[in-house]
Amino acid sequence: MSLVDHKTWCSINTAFGSFQMYKNGNDREDYCLLSYGPLSELPKVPLVRVQSSCLASEVFGSIDCDCRDQLELALKRIAEVGSGLVIFLRQEGRGQGLAQKIRAMRLSDIHGYDTFDAYEAIGIAQDIREYRLAALIILELGRTSIRLMTNNYRKVEGLIACGVDVVKVVPHVCTMRPEIISYLRAKETKLGHRIGLAGDGHR
Ligand SMILES: [Zn+2]
Question: Which domain holds residue 155?
Answer without folding.
Answer: 4-190
